[in-house]
């Protein structure tokens, strides 16, 4: 008898919680209820009223900071290198197959560290070189050894583009120009912003 009562009470509490959640959701999505359509203030420009239109990779310029060529028609276009408050640099861009046929992404791009390789194909072999400070910065890893970069590469069809990113420890604030090195690609100098 008490088990049956407990089960009924539990079902009742679940139903009550769901009903309350749905009621809050409907209230949050509701309009002003005053029947008036709110128009943008005439003193604001059309672009200010709508807000920014985010692109696939927010904050990146149309002109690449650097383009480095790899094997079999692969092209890595770096579109941003941003210093973050957390003490790291995020490098973003696009990996493109500029060739006429499909290309298997080279496994060498993952580097040669066992801990990184065991997590699959990635950009884990990439480094930033600070020539002025005479230091090399490797892609950051999480506590399980996974590189903080785009992973899971396979095959890129002809003309296909894939957005990519890599995170590195930040060089000193006085360092703005660094060289990006990715295995099987040429080197390229990029400017860190932020």
Task: Describe, in plain words, how this protein is organized in 3D.
With 194 residues, the chain is of the alpha+beta class. Helices cover 19% and strands 28% of the residues. It folds into 2 domains: 1-30; 66-191, Immunoglobulin-like, CATH 2.60.40. It is built from 3 helices and 10 strands. A 4-stranded antiparallel β-sheet has the order 1-2-3-8, with no helix packed on it. Strands 6-5-9-10 form a 4-stranded antiparallel β-sheet, with no helix packed on it. Strand 2 and strand 3 (88-97) form a beta hairpin. The termini are far apart. Residues 22-28 and 31-60 have low confidence and may be disordered. Residues 41-63 have a biased composition (Polar residues). This is Secreted protein. Residues 31-64 are annotated as: Disordered. Residues 1-19 form the signal peptide.
Record keyword descriptors for this entry:
194 residues; alpha+beta; Immunoglobulin-like; 2 domains; 4-stranded antiparallel beta sheet; 3 helices; 10 strands; 28% strand; globular
Question: What order do the helices and strands come in, and which of them pair?
Answer:
Elements lengths: L1 H28 L16 H5 L15 E4 L4 E11 L3 E10 L5 E2 L9 H4 L9 E4 L4 E4 L16 E2 L4 E9 L7 E5 L6 E4 L3
Antiparallel strand pairs: 1-2, 2-3, 3-8, 4-7, 5-6, 5-9, 9-10
């Amino acid at each position: 008898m008490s088990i049956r009562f407990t089960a009924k009470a539990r079902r009742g509490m679940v139903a009550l919680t769901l009903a309350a959640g749905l009621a809050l959701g409907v209230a949050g999505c509701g309009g002003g209820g005053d029947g008036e359509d709110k128009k943008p203030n005439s003193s604001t420009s059309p672009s200010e009223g709508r807000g920014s239109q985010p692109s696939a990779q927010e904050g990146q310029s149309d002109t690449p900071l650097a383009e480095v060529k790899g094997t079999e028609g692969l092209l890595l276009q770096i579109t941003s290198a941003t210093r973050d408050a957390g003490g790291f640099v995020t490098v973003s861009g696009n990996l493109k197959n500029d060739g006429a046929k499909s290309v298997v992404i080279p496994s060498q791009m993952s580097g040669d560290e066992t801990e990184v390789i065991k997590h699959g194909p990635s950009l884990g072999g990439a480094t930033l070189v600070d020539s002025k400070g005479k230091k090399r910065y490797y892609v950051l890893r999480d506590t399980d050894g996974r590189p903080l970069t785009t992973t899971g590469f396979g095959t890129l069809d002809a003309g296909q583009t894939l957005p990519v990113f890599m995170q590195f420890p930040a060089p000193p604030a006085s360092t703005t120009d660094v060289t990006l090195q990715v295995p099987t690609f040429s080197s390229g100098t990029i400017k860190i912003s932020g």
